[in-house]
Amino acid sequence: MTMPMTLALTRKAPRVSQALGITVLVALIILPFLALLPADHPLAISVWMLTLAGKILCYAVVAVALDLVWGYAGMLSLGHGLFFALGGYAMGMYLMRQAAGEGLPAFMSFLSWSELPWFWWGTQHFAWAFAWVVLLPGLLALIFGYFAFRSKIKGVYFSIMTQALTFAGMLLFFRNETGFGGNNGFTGFTTLLGFPIAATTTRIALFLMTVLLLVLALWLGFALARSKFGRILTAIRDSEDRLMFCGYDPKGFRLLVWTLSAVLCALAGALYVPQVGIINPSEMSPTNSIEAAIWVALGGRGTLIGPIFGAILVNGAKSLFTVILPEYWQLFLGLIFIGVTLFLPRGVIGLFRKGDK
């Protein structure tokens, strides 16, 4: 009697999480259209609330991307904020050119620049800017990962190096002479593909694009996790020496998932910027990358679905606490991490998978 009952619970647990995921997805698709309702309608939501939800979903994509490298390949990155910000800056360059028209972006005029830097050429075209969104973070991750994995850097040393990488990027972008707006970054966006960026319909379209990116990230993550590639990644995480004894070279597998994760973060950053309306070097702060690790740990590392709930819960609580008790937010975040470590070793998603042994 015990074995059939255990098998039934094991089958039931994934069904519960799948049903929960489908329910959340349907709610996310319906949510933006509530912004079109009259303000006095009981179900109506404000454009501000829609923007906040879109911002949190961008963070959820980052959480899924980080879970691919940490939850499956065992590489704790503390530098994913850099890739997120680079994608945001690439999109911000296009938006700044759209706002400036035939002239220079506002911050360049303020600094008395007479012409665009060479790396701004072509950024008035959306296709070129989108290529920057994908290629710049992807190439940076590829080059960094190639040398790091070739040198067999892993564990805490890998985490420290990724944190140093994002900190160096932040210091570079803070400088006015680099041509990225310095401390203020990019803001004052007006149009996106010819549509007013502040219009409710544009906000709805951006939100739905963010939902689509999240779904694609999940689909890609599950496809990889359930493939031979995913099994090799977990073998790298659990017993790299045994995997190498079987004839596999882990460097290539690590490099591929690391680069893919960076590109997903960059795409999330590109959708984040037009919704929030600003991008500056503070997005590269190592603190942001550490927070992303907390989202993954809270939701459930190595589950892909769990980190989404972690990102939503932490950022939703952050939005609430920074209004009610802003001085205690960091303390609250620390307590969350301690509580999850002590009482929820499998994260929040583990509550829905009690029967999954």
UniProtKB/TrEMBL annotation:
It is found in: Cell inner membrane. It is a multi-pass membrane protein. The chain crosses the membrane at residues 20-37, 44-66, 72-91, 127-149, 156-174, 204-225, 252-273, 293-316, 328-352. InterPro entries: ABC_transp_permease (IPR001851), ABC_transptr_urea_perm_UrtC (IPR017778), LivM-like (IPR043428). Pfam families: BPD_transp_2. One of its GO terms (cellular component) is plasma membrane. Keywords: Cell membrane, Membrane, Transmembrane, Transmembrane helix. Its main location: membrane. One of its GO terms (molecular function) is branched-chain amino acid transmembrane transporter activity. PANTHER family: HIGH-AFFINITY BRANCHED-CHAIN AMINO ACID TRANSPORT SYSTEM PERMEASE, SLR1201 PROTEIN. This is Urea ABC transporter permease subunit UrtC. It comes from Citrobacter amalonaticus. The gene is urtC.
